[in-house]
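Figure 2 data, in text form.
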Amino acid sequence: MTRARISDCPLARTVEVIDRWWTLEILHVVLGGHTRFSAIRRDLETPADVLADRIAALRAKGLLEVDDTADDTAEPGDPTYRATDLGRSLRPLILVMAAFGNHRLAPEDRSVVLVDEETGREVDPVVVDRATGRRVDTAGFVFARGPKASEQVAARYPEPRAGG
């Protein structure tokens, strides 16, 4: 695992948690309902030993856990997994990354789209401020240093304006 160059940078901390491309891929599959080891393996077409190592790494990071409450009708050695709170917290990132990938394609060239399950209509996720509902990917939203900013971070970002 790579260590962040600036340890208190939130982007670097996120990359440390994700670490490898397959972290998001496995979480995407599990969050999509494929929770048995055999189903994850089939969906991702990954050798069993490789997938077992990857799942072990995600469990060690606290992103996945064995679901002991799952219906135990599977074969022995075919455990069921679920995303932890930390793992589920990456779902919005997965949705936005998928939307980013699709924005560069014509609608007819997209292989996977996010839809409203009730209506079947394609949706376009955006990031909004929870308190106001305003989109934060517009002018007027900037990064500022937080109260525990290191010297490196403080040198890059201004203090928040009064009232912030």
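Caption note: The mean pLDDT is 91.
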